[in-house]
Amino acid sequence: MKRDYYIEYFEFIDMLFREFINDMKEKYPGAFHVGDYCCEIPVICFLTFYRYYTHSKDLYNHLRKEGKSRDEVHQLFKNRLYETVNNSFTQPAIVSINNNDELQLLLQPFRNQILIYVYNERHLNYLIPLICRLNQPVVLVSEFDLSDRTDLPDYVSVLTIEFLKEQYYSPFLYEHYPHIYHYCNTFAQLMQILQPCCTIVLEGCLFQHAIIANISKRLSIPSICIQHGWPSMLLCCSRNMQYDYFFSWGRLFNDLWKEHNPIPKFVSMGYMYPVLPMREKISITFFLQGPYVLHDKEYFDEMLDFLLQCAISFPTQMFCVREHPEYRIPDDFKKKLNECSNIRDVSKEPLSEIYAETILVVSHSSSCIMEGIVHKCIPFVFDPTFESRYCPDIEKMTLGIIANTMEEAVRKMNSFILHPSQRNCFLKRNDEIKKKLFASYGKDTLRKMVKFINRIVAYEKCKDK
After folding, report:
1. Between 381 and which of 32, 48, 106, 390 could a Cys-Cys bridge form, CB atoms 3.0 to 4.6 Å apart?
2. How far is CA 30 from CA 19, 40, 169, 178, in A?
């Protein structure tokens, strides 16, 4: 196993960000406030995704492997972060609505509705099954134009975000984190006027999500976050979430989320997507990931080598591969895969169809590892990251297989293919524990979500009378 420092890195930046926030608050009192709205967690989410997600992780790893001590690298990264408060960022464009009366008039038709924030088109596609069952006024708020969508019910309205002239001033955020400053000002004005009965976001780890959660709390608007995946390792952006309610897949996930999220009330709703009827499961499917978080290009290539080796060793076994939507297989390696008649690219097929034909899900740390369980797939974690152990430990739970080296992965894959009786043991355990991981799925989950949301909406409307 090669030595890397990815686990160490993400533990370090969690500590670094908290130290940075405390130091800046001491040096600049009120630094992270926009009016009454605190933006400490949005800043941490912003730093995680836009400054410290990929390039800085690779630099940290490179310096540590070169022999730099932990303290030396920590000091270097601390200096770089603190220097950013002396550098301004490009200011986003501001829309020319200066008159609050004009804004009130524009937004009046959308008052007291369910507000759903949609980060991108992929998130909207995931939320469509829920949106189409709410059957009451919904306003979708998004940065991209949704006017050409034909699959939205008549009770859904769309607001495309444009940054409004600021109502509150925060010199620190204006200078150093202008997008957070303008997002907070814009969301605050929108939500003060709209007074939504509740706010809903998917996944919940983006700085926009955190801003909505904080404003909702300040305005006493119930906020809901819906679980979209499971990250194995909770990064800074998935900790200390401020939502009132978190719709989780199931009870065992609640315990995992709660460790770093004491505030939300976790509600075991289930998985809101379809699970197709059982059919013959013959495929072993590799779900690829981009070189992010605990992953890098070398590990990505190693996963491809593992797939190729498996396909050559077992020519009668069907293997499938699904690319990550934001990181594709290099053309030269794709040619090698295409030469194997028992490897099929399923990247464009619906997930439910892929799972329905898959007996074994192979990945590094993708959400599909746990998600596959509800589809009665056996998880296989190939995780060569140094000192990493997939959480929850599916091997200890006798739900699946974990391998940390190529040699171990090849040996365990050979055993799985050559000894079909193993499958029965895993599938029996799947039947025993699935209900604890996934409270329900498909239409049953959607019915529970709609009932819960309707109850919140009814209560909020009673309060206004």
Report:
1. 390
2. 16, 10, 11, 16
Residue 344's DSSP bridge partners are 320
**Can you give the three-state secondary structure of 401-452, one letter per residue?**
EEECCHHHHHHHHHHHHHCCHHHHHHHHHHHHHHHHHCCCECHHHHHHHHHH
Closest CA to 46 of 210, 245, 241: 210
CA distance 255 to 184: 31
Tokens of 296: 């890098």
Residues 196 and 212 sit within 8 Å (Cβ to Cβ): no
Task: Determine the pLDDT at residue 464.
Answer: 66
The token pair that represents 206 in the structure block: 């983006």
Mean pLDDT for back-to-back runs of 10 residues, the chain (465 residues): 86 94 92 94 93 84 95 94 65 51 90 96 95 96 89 94 85 91 94 96 97 97 97 92 98 96 98 90 95 88 96 97 90 93 96 96 95 97 93 96 97 96 94 96 98 93 70
CA-to-CA distance for 68 and 150, rounded, in angstroms? Answer: 56
d(CA 387, CA 243): 32
Rounded CA separation 197/228 (Å): 22
| Alpha-carbon distances, residue 288 vs 234, 300, 306, 323 (angstroms) | 20, 7, 12, 5
295 and 324 in contact (C-beta within 8 Å)?
no
Widest Cα–Cα separation across the chain: 72
Residue 288 near residue 327, CB atoms below 8 Å: yes
Q: Are 112 and 197 in contact (CB under 8 A)?
A: yes
Cβ density class 33-43: b for 16+ within 10 Å, e for less:
bbeebbbbbbb
Q: For residues 420 and 443, what is the distance between their CA atoms, to the nearest angstrom?
A: 33
Instruction: Count the neighbouring beta carbons within 10 Å of the beta carbon of residue 381.
Output: 24
- Classify residue 327 by its DSSP letter: B
Give yes or no for a contact between 201 and 212, defined as CB atoms under 8 angstroms apart. yes
- Residue 257's Cβ-count burial label (10 Å; 0-12, 13-18, 19+) is buried
Q: What is the DSSP string of 184-243?
A: HHHHHHHHHHH--SEEEEES--SHHHHHHHHHHHHTT--EEEE-----SS--GGGSS---
The residues facing 247 across adjacent strands are 226, 267
CA–CA gap between residue 329 and residue 258 (Å, rounded): 36
Intra-chain end-to-end CA distance of the chain, in Å:
64
Tokens for 253?
């996930």
